[in-house]
């Protein structure tokens, strides 16, 4: 039966049942997961996605978490991953947001239609009272045909009852007409659950089972399910008052430009103060300069340093200026890690509080002039963390056209947190004017490129259609866990590239190639960009990773080889051209090679052209 | 009339959503032909926000121009 199951990354013992947590986004699934599994949790990444799945033990069974989704289908990566886990589950624990039943019960009914044994946890019961709603839980349970347990997971209420009820999970009341459709198509696939998705025209299920000439009835089934859910909701909910709570009012304020823009600016300012000032200067001052730069560096020099002479190639490779055990760990752990952790902490806060979709709605109008819709703000913000991961998330955009524009803009004009940290450090001493010239240039390139692409590219972009989940106070445990997972992902991705970069630059330097490349480029670097010839060395470093290049500029600046305006010109160039090698590889994987080559070469041309023009004015 | 001409506070019924792909995504969020919702907010030249009880959905202005509705 499992021959079509693509989930091979999670280890399930032979007699163990697979208990799967399913629910819409932000319904508090992870609180249930942590309660049921305790400490021993595995996290595995789904190949080809940025999605991590946690799994753990519950008695002799295995519990798996899934990404939050509105239904089981294939509209995006989250849904595809959730679909594959739900499809092969033995028992589903469905977490439902009690104040959003008309949205959440659609998934519940779909899981019931699959014929899976289900227990429903009716979560956020505290919000129900607060919003003046009343829910007839017994009637809901009777209508669905499965056990429904009221919970307020965040306060721990009802969790013990859910734990107990899992063994009593049963199949619910399926919609009769949908069951008939399933029976008609069942012979094409292995299970009833697959049959339902086949009838719902899920392209992956159709492809996996090699079903030819199939005519599905997705819209018809969805409509039947919608009607059924709406009927249930009408029966079980009574509204006692209609006063909007503070959270609803705040949610509205975040949407309306007159209040939303100041709120967004305030949020960005806090982020800047926390990451750009506190982490990039105070924390990094300790981690990079003292802990790594002094203690660690001296330790290495006094141990390993005794055995190698740093004038030899091997000595240079290990402990030289760009050495594998000197520069690489110092930059990664001393400089980048604190910045990346800080960034992902804020991003997780925005995600878990429900603020992100409101930003998407707020900026929708502005992004449509760049040929994108508000949803594209998500990869853009993510890009400030790591352009590579952000490039993968461009998949959530609706058309090829948007994916290309977003990828181009990400690669070109969004500096990642690591790079931003080094840039902040370099620009801060130059004063506000330098900062404004730098940001205005990058921003102008961003807007002009997006607008031109929107004008020139054929086709049409898709429109915004996004759920605005209720605002919620994020749970600190979840935020920290997400921050941790994403930071680890970053380390795994960045470290090998820093090693490659370090090796490459050391060899180039040792063999004198670096100097000859620098002198070949001299007419260009000196003549057009008006910079010191050695800057091309930093540019070459920047091809490996932009922050690596920025670190090279850091070096040159501290040697006094660049003055203020020259530093701005070099930073503009290095920000705009190619992201790191990892991002390039992901771009080539996600887009066609023609598009990728265009992005890659285009970013070089735009970056040096912009830097050159800027140089004519300010240097 | 189309959704983009609905005003804040008005209750509307969806008459027609032309795009099949949008139709199946919207139906999961409770927006479908025949559903009655409140236009709870309208951003200047930007998205229209539709509300059904506690559920809120933002719909881009361009899409709103294509959705046929009537006041109820």
TrEMBL record, chain A:
NCBIfam families, sorted: feoB
Source lineage: Bacteria, Bacillati, Bacillota, Clostridia, Peptostreptococcales
Q: What is the membrane topology listed in the Swiss-Prot or TrEMBL record?
A: Multi-pass membrane protein
Using the record, list the residue span of the signal peptide; answer none if the entry has no such feature: none
Which protein family is named in the record? Belongs to the TRAFAC class TrmE-Era-EngA-EngB-Septin-like GTPase superfamily. FeoB GTPase (TC 9.A.8) family.
- Can you tell me where the transmembrane regions are? 254-272, 318-347, 376-397, 404-428, 434-453, 494-513, 567-588, 597-618
Give the organism the record lists: Paramaledivibacter caminithermalis (strain DSM 15212 / CIP 107654 / DViRD3)
Question: What are the residue boundaries of the FeoB-type G domain, all occurrences included?
Answer: 16-172
* Residues where Mg(2+) binds: 34, 37-38
Concerning CDD domains, the annotation shows: FeoB
* Protein name (database record): Ferrous iron transport protein B
What's in the keyword line of the UniProt record?
Cell membrane, GTP-binding, Ion transport, Iron, Iron transport, Magnesium, Membrane, Metal-binding, Nucleotide-binding, Transmembrane, Transmembrane helix, Transport
Q: Which domain of life is it from?
A: Bacteria
TrEMBL record, chain B:
Cleavable signal peptide: none
Q: Name one molecular function that GO assigns to this entry.
A: transition metal ion binding
Q: Which residues form the Ferrous iron transporter FeoA-like domain?
A: 1-71
The record's annotation in Gene3D superfamilies points to:
2.30.30.90
Q: Which Pfam families match?
A: FeoA
Superkingdom of origin organism:
Bacteria
Would the keyword Protease turn up in this protein's UniProt record?
no
Record bears the keyword Iron: yes
Task: Provide this UniProt record's keywords sorted from A to Z.
Answer: Iron
- This chain belongs to the protein called FeoA domain-containing protein
Its source organism is Paramaledivibacter caminithermalis (strain DSM 15212 / CIP 107654 / DViRD3)
């Amino acid at each position: 039966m499992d021959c079509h199951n693509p989930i091979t990354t999670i280890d399930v013992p032979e007699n163990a049942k697979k208990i799967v947590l399913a629910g819409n986004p932000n319904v508090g699934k992870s609180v249930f997961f942590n309660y049921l599994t305790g400490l021993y949790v595995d996290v595995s990444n789904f190949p080809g996605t940025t999605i991590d799945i946690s799994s753990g033990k519950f008695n002799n069974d295995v519990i798996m978490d899934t990404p939050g989704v509105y239904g089981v289908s294939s509209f995006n990566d989250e849904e595809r991953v959730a679909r594959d886990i739900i499809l092969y589950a033995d028992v589903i624990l469905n977490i439902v947001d009690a104040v959003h039943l008309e949205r959440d019960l659609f998934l519940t009914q779909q899981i019931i239609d699959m014929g899976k044994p289900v227990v429903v946890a009716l979560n956020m019961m505290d919000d129900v009272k607060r919003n003046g709603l009343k829910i007839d839980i017994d009637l809901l349970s009777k209508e669905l045909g499965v056990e429904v347990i009221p919970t307020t997971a965040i306060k721990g209420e009802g969790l013990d009852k859910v734990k107990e009820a899992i063994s009593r999970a049963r199949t619910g009341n399926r919609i009769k007409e949908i069951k008939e459709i399933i029976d008609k198509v069942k012979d094409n696939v292995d299970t009833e659950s697959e049959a339902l998705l086949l009838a719902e025209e899920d392209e992956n299920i159709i492809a996996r089972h090699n079903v030819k000439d199939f005519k599905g009835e997705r819209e018809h089934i969805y409509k039947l399910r919608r009607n059924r859910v709406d009927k249930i909701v009408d029966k079980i909910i009574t509204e006692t008052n209609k006063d909007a709570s503070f959270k609803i009012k705040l949610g509205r304020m975040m949407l309306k430009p007159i209040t939303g823009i100041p709120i967004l600016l305030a949020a960005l300012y806090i982020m800047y103060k926390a990451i750009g000032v506190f982490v990039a200067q105070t924390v990094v001052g300790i981690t990079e300069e003292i802990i790594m730069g002094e203690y660690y560096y001296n330790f290495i020099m006094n141990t390993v340093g005794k055995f190698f002479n740093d004038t030899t190639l091997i000595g240079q490779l290990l402990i030289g200026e760009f050495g594998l055990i000197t520069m690489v760990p110092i930059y990664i752990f001393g400089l980048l890690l604190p910045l990346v952790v800080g960034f992902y902490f804020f991003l997780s806060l925005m995600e878990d509080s429900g603020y992100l979709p409101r930003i998407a709605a707020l900026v929708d109008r502005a992004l449509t002039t760049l040929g994108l819709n508000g949803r594209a703000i998500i990869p853009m913000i993510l890009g400030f963390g790591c352009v590579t991961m952000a490039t993968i998330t461009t998949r959530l955009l609706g058309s090829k056209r948007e994916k290309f524009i977003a990828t181009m803009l990400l690669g070109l004009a969004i500096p990642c947190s690591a790079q931003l940290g080094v840039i902040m450090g370099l620009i801060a001493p130059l004063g506000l004017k330098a900062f404004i010239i730098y940001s205005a240039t990058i921003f102008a390139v961003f807007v002009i490129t997006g607008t031109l692409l929107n004008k020139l590219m054929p086709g049409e972009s898709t429109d915004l259609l996004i759920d605005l989940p209720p605002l919620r106070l994020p749970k600190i445990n979840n935020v920290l866990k997400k921050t941790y997972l994403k930071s680890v992902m970053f380390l795994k991705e960045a470290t090998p590239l820093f090693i490659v970069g370090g090796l490459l630059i050391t060899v180039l330097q040792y063999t004198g190639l670096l100097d000859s490349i620098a002198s070949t480029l001299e007419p260009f670097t000196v003549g057009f960009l008006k910079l010191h010839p050695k800057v091309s060395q930093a540019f070459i470093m920047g091809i490996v990773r932009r922050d690596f290049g920025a670190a090279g500029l850091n070096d040159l600046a501290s040697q006094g080889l660049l003055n203020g305006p020259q530093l701005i010109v070099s930073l503009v160039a290095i920000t705009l051209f190619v992201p790191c090698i990892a991002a390039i590889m992901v771009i080539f994987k996600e887009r066609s090679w023609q598009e990728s080559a265009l992005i890659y070469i285009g970013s070089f041309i735009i970056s040096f052209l912009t830097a050159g023009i800027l140089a004519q004015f300010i240097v | 009339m189309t959704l983009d001409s609905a005003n804040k506070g008005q209750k509307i019924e969806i008459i027609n959503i032309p795009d099949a792909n949008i139709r199946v995504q919207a139906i999961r969020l409770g927006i479908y032909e025949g559903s009655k919702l409140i236009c709870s907010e309208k951003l200047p030249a930007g998205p229209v926000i539709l509300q059904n009880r506690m559920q809120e959905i933002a719909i881009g202005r361009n899409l709103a121009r294509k959705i046929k509705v009537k006041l109820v």
